[in-house]
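Practice problem: predict the structure.
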Amino acid sequence: MSNGQAAVQDEAKPASGNPRRPGRGSYKPRPETLALLRVSGNPINGLGETALRRPSPFFWHPPDKHPYGELQTVARTSSRKCPGSAQAFVAAYTHPELPPVAAVRRQASPEEFAAEATDFALAHEAGGVGIAPMDPLYVFEGYTIDEPWVIVLALAPNYERLKEVPSDETNGIGVTEIGEQYARGTRVSFALANWIRSHGYNAQAYPGPSASALLLIPPAIASGLGELGKHGSLINRHYGAGLRLAGVTTDMPLVATKPDRFGADEFCSTCQVCTNACPPGAINEQKQVVRGVERWYVDFDKCVPFFAESASCGICIAECPWTRPSVRPKLLTTMARRLGQAPSES
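Answer:
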């Protein structure tokens, strides 16, 4: 092992001794929770499928779209018992109606529109912005999206609050932070869609935490907002794995932003922090084939019961070395050296 590799592994040590986090393999779901996992979610997600296809509706879609409605209710009820979280999630689900599209279309170059849309989003709570051409594989089965562009918005976390996960009835700091990120995503996605409509172009907002037509992580990766981590969440070079996403689709002429490879994928291939920190052991050490793509995958059947009982969990992203502000710059420098890139700042 080189000195650089040793340094990377040293940075991957777990960050927290949070007493609310049981050790890996120590968690067993309650029988009543396990009974609500009526069918395996892994085949629904496309685990082991070698052909490309659109994703199926999953856990956070409306209950009539999947078989986990009762388990979804357990998860929502669990998280809302945490102090402060109910108000945060109410804000995440609260948004204005979008106004009609202006009758006259403003004319400008795609470069001008892309720059203005990015500046608008960054001035309205977004921490990062990516733009990608729409791909049919970004649209869930049973839904349609007609707009040819997707703008992905990254919401920056507060690490000191985020690392308090998992939450419980005495400490809701972590899950409240997650809810507040989603609320910011709701505000900025609707504000941006409204701004685009005011210029005469169609736009639809897709905030979390509930899912709708748009799958967000693939266009986020395509547009340069990060790389997929072993824990199944996006890793961003500026914010680590703690950010949340929202999206806006539009027919406003735009230009795409480029993918950003900074070494997270390579790092995850040897790092075991999230794998070892996951109480139900849901994070696999190796990539798997999912809907025709070899990628990191989290076992749905192991993850979701713990998530439902533990007020949104989030242990894997809180423990991820990339999420820690004191560690991330060192990782960027080390991985840039391994990739033969010029170092860049966090």
